[in-house]
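pasting input
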Amino acid sequence: MAGVPLIAAAASIRPALEEISTRYNEVTGESVRLVFGSSGTLANQIANGAPYVLFLSANTAYVRWLAGLGLTQGPPVTYAEGVLALYSRSGLLGETENPLMALDSALQHGVVKRLVIANPEYAPYGSAARAALEHAGSWTRARPVLLLGANAGQAVQYALQGDVDVALVPLPLARLAKLQETGQLQVLPKETFPSVELHQQMVLLPGADQKTHEFFAYLQSIDSQEIFRRHGLLVPSPVNLTLQP
Amino acid sequence: MDWNAFHLSLQLAAWTLVLLLPIGIVTGRWLAKTQTRARPWLQAFFALPLVLPPTVVGYYLLVFTGTRSPIGEFIMSWFGVSLVFSFPGLVVASILVNLPFAILPVQRAFEAVSNELHDAAACCGMTPWQTFTRIEMPLAWPGVLSAAVLTLGHTLGEFGVVLMVGGNIPGETRTLSIAIFDRVQAFDPLAAGRMAGFLLLISLVTVALGYGVLERRGQQRQKSA
């Protein structure tokens, strides 16, 4: 196992990254080891000396925090843009173009017993979810029925197992959990949470060797971007990449 | 089924048992015989892992043995190993959280060995070491065995501390219980369920075998009495 790069990644990109690492193995014959968790937990582990060589966060804040501690190597790279989705129990919101408006009226009528989001205090998708509810003017109405997951992954678990009416969660995880089979899954456009950015950044860590650098480069290839996109993430367009200094 | 993780769990349980049992016997016997007034405090200290949430134990281990702590730095520079996010670190953590399981049953067993027996053995000319190996240990053996069974079972199932101190590193710190958690996180309930069932079976068999041996010994002793 020694010599195989150990990579820490946000749980919200698990399906995409697993596919990328399989593809990478097919193409190059090299492999990587993946560890998934919430970005905050992983950042904490890195600060405490975890032997990861590359960190893919679900936001920019944890990457910046680690850089501030002097625990990163080289500049961070935005590998994707997170996409927030709204899950609702079948039939709850009906056919609608604007699920947030429908949610607001459902909240007013008291038919939403439980609304799940990740904890906005430290989970990137949690703060995006809160911003979306605030922007729609539903936050105060939503608070009494709010259930907080410790991270985006747990929020999806609740949506999957608990009797939950509505959940605002990352699209890739919602799809992985097949939430679309138990209810409606709708993408929330960026305009619905203008105050929060879901730039997802990755950064090399001090232990990174040649093999890690190669995988890091592969993550920015057209191949990887295609996979990220297929799993419901937005990817910075190649044009923008070449324009960057 | 993640055989790698199962193998790691077995290794962890074996190392914990081998290193902890002597500690349990020495400490348990000493606690049983000592007259010190600090005894309740010492007992409470060893029982702490039973009452503290795993997150608290894990937190203190990270703080005191993390790579940025003085202890962590010292161990890194002298032995070249990290006590967090590594297998040796898991063994240390596992020994600490299993202290109550290894010490308390042994202590009870040695307390049950009466002082008259000591005196009688001394009168027969036995050295303290002979008294210990030939009189005390055979009598306290069931306590030692329950300590071993409890430690083994508890190590196989330990989750919180392992996750905090070990992370979830495949082939290094991802034990069977962490692998189950990981599969749940990956929305793979089938694999999680299979492994959970397997762990249940292993734990049941381990503990049942332990109790079986204890019971048989008890019956033998009754017969010989």
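fyi Residues 10 and 156 of chain B are 7 Å apart (CA to CA).
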